[in-house]
Design a protein that fits this description.
Keywords: Membrane, Transmembrane, Transmembrane helix. The protein has 628 residues and is mostly helical. The protein has helices at 3-30, 38-59, 65-78, 81-86, 94-109, 127-139, 143-170, 173-183, 198-218, 222-239, 244-263, 278-298, 303-323, 339-364, 381-390, 392-396, 406-433, 435-438, 441-466, 469-472, 488-501, 511-521, 536-539, 546-555, 588-592, and strands at residues 506-508, 524-525, 557-563, 600-605, 609-614. A hairpin with a 3-residue loop joins strand 4 and strand 5.
Length: 628
């Protein structure tokens, strides 16, 4: 049996075995003791069973087109499995609950732009919710299972888009496969960009718009150029109603490419990639810019207000950190991740940095190299622009040390890694193909093995840096965790409220109970802040301020949910409600006072949860601790 046939036959058994091992790791995690990390090792065994041979197939010069594409499809399907198995039947992640509720409400009412209880901005970007509702209406499936279909397809299509982009830039499916696989090593690919969230869909438009632009640059006829230009323009316009960051990062990437095209339009090196008039290259960027301005002004006017605290806070905190006047985040503080994951999280940027440096040196030395028949030696506008764009990854790295900028930095890596993939792919191919390194069978195997191992290290490190273990694995109850605070007791309390008084009730609850009540009771939890300190009802004993009472009453808040563990346990995520809350836990007296106050009536109680109904008209009748 020849090797190509062996690879084709091995694909689906390997993918199936990998999925079974990942499922086994989740079974171990669900019953593991605190501090036990064996499930991490089993998980990575399952993932690398598929990832390592896919790396081999992608880099091999002896593998045919059909086998290479089959392995890429199998890899794309497999990398959806970890998130699918994490919560196969209901939303679990914070963003997922928000988007699921938005889609379910759209399906039930048919009304767009309904306010969202958890993430206000998503109501202004309804593309995902429209698509999910449409799939549900067509198939008859639930909102959740409709979304799973959407995101499985999106995940596979996104990876194929990265492969297509690489093929457009380098003229080789082998190079495209390496671009796609390197992109898949980013911290978001395995979990964050497979969740029920608008970035997961926006990423598809982001990647395929760039792929179409790449093919536009490569097209040799006017008809082909116009077709690719039209496709890119439609994808660019379509991403804007889906996701704000995908739109902005796409604009940034296209701007880099367009500037590269303008700067190199008279260069002999880029003539074979510079067919067509300049307006074709400016059209996609201009239409995208116009759509962003139109949508952000007319349909989503609060986008800048929503995003600016992350940017301003991140830059401000980073400035104080560098000047020595502020403190940064301690990475992996109180983390349960095994030491090798933590080590690889620091090694991964260093490895990628070395590859990027080699790519930059290749650009600086480009005129010394012959371009004889090899697209890897040609620095086209797409290659130059996307490579420069990919370097934004390194600019974002320091922000991981700031509280406000860390989340934004992680979000940006999924986008910038596509540019990095374009920058480093020729370096990887040079290592795999250079006679200096692969002149003998032994050297060739050593270089191939080292390359696969380096890719696995980057994957493990990036996933570890991108998501906490509580999000990645099931396990025992953890107070103050978005994903580990869900218990049958909490679900029963939420379902009781839904049955007794119906949905859309405005409630007070901590972040974690609130998330559960949004999902299972369609409730509307308050968003406390220094200007609306609803958390005072949990942290202070005695009558709340008149201003707070007036705001609660006029806003229609009806119920208060109390989890008595707030007084005895620190939240794993470091906050009970959010920014601005007091820096001490609630006292048992502050939580139990409402049992005796006439303006709060206990309507439900379980081992840990109590639900009170407000009667603000009776608040002055008696206050706990006062004289009747």
């Amino acid at each position: 049996m020849n090797s190509a046939r062996w690879w084709r036959l091995a694909l689906w058994p390997v993918v199936t075995l990998g999925a079974v091992v990942v499922a086994w790791s989740y079974s171990i995690a669900a019953t593991h003791d605190a501090g036990d990390t064996v499930h991490y090792a089993v998980f990575w065994l399952g993932v690398l069973l598929v990832t390592a041979p896919t790396f081999v197939v992608a880099g091999s010069r002896r593998i045919g087109v059909g086998t290479r594409l089959a392995w890429l499809l199998g890899y794309a399907a497999f990398t959806f499995v970890p998130k699918l198995l994490r919560n196969p039947s209901l939303p679990l992640y914070y963003d997922e609950v928000a988007h699921w509720r938005q889609s379910a409400d759209l399906t039930a009412s048919g009304t767009l732009y309904q306010p969202n209880a958890l993430i206000s901005i998503i109501a202004d970007f309804p593309g995902l919710h429209i698509l999910t509702a449409a799939v549900g209406a067509t198939t008859g499936l639930s909102t959740w299972h409709s979304a799973e279909i959407v995101f499985f397809a999106a995940h596979v299509i996104a990876l194929l888009g990265a492969v297509s982009l690489g093929e457009a830039v380098f003229g080789s499916l082998r190079a495209g496969a390496i671009v796609g696989l390197f992109y898949s090593l980013n911290s978001s690919f395995l979990y964050f960009d497979t969740e029920f969230g608008y970035e997961s869909l926006g990423m598809v438009f982001f990647i395929w718009c760039l792929a179409c632009v790449g093919w536009m640059y490569r097209a040799r006829t006017r008809r082909a150029r116009l077709a690719w230009t039209a496709a890119a323009a439609l994808l660019g316009i379509a991403v804007v109603p889906v996701h704000h960051l995908s739109s902005l990062f796409l604009f940034l990437a296209l701007a880099f490419v367009t500037v590269a095209a303008l700067l190199t339009r008279h260069s002999r090196e880029t003539q074979q990639e510079a067919h067509g008039p300049l307006w074709e290259k400016l059209l996609v960027l201009g239409l995208l810019a116009g759509m962003i301005v139109l949508w952000f002004t007319a349909a989503a006017p609060h986008t800048a207000t929503y995003l600016s605290p992350y940017f301003q806070g991140g830059f401000s905190q980073l400035g104080r950190l560098w000047s020595g006047t502020g403190n940064g985040r301690t990475l992996y503080s109180a983390s349960s991740n095994p030491k090798y994951e933590q080590l690889f999280a620091f090694v991964a940027p260093a490895l990628v940095g070395l590859l990027a440096l080699a790519g930059i040196l290749g650009f600086l030395r480009r005129r010394r190299r012959a371009a004889a028949g090899a697209d890897y030696a040609v620095w086209s506008p797409m290659r130059i622009g996307l490579s420069a764009y990919g370097l934004l990854y390194f600019l974002a790295l320091p922000f991981i040390l700031t509280a406000s900028g860390a989340e934004g930095a992680r979000r940006s890596w999924g986008f910038s890694y596509l540019g990095l993939a374009v920058l480093v792919t020729p370096v990887v191919l040079a290592l795999l193909d250079s006679p200096r390194w692969t002149g003998t069978v032994r050297r060739r195997r050593a270089v191939g093995t080292a390359s696969v191992c380096a890719g696995c290290v980057v994957l493990i490190g990036n996933v570890s840096a991108g998501l906490d273990g509580d999000y990645r694995f099931p396990g025992p109850y953890v107070f103050g965790s978005d994903t580990r605070s869900v218990t049958p007791e909490g679900v029963a309390a939420a379902q009781w409220l839904a049955r007794s008084v119906g949905g859309r009730q405005k409630i007070l609850a901590d972040r974690y109970a609130g998330l559960l009540f949004v999902r299972d009771a369609a409730s509307w939890p308050a968003t406390p802040s220094p200007g609306f300190p609803a958390y005072d009802l949990y942290f202070s004993e005695g009558k709340p301020s008149d201003a707070l009472v007036a705001e609660l009453a006029t806003s229609g808040y009806t119920y208060m949910i109390i989890d008595d563990r707030m007084a005895t346990q620190q939240p794993a995520q470091g906050e009970y409600f959010g920014p601005g809350e007091p820096n001490h836990p609630p006292t048992p007296g502050a939580l139990s006072q409402y049992t005796h106050d006439p303006w709060t009536t206990l309507v439900y109680q379980s081992d840990h949860y109590s639900i009170y109904r407000f009667d603000f008209a009776a608040i002055d009748a008696h206050v706990t601790g006062s004289t009747p």
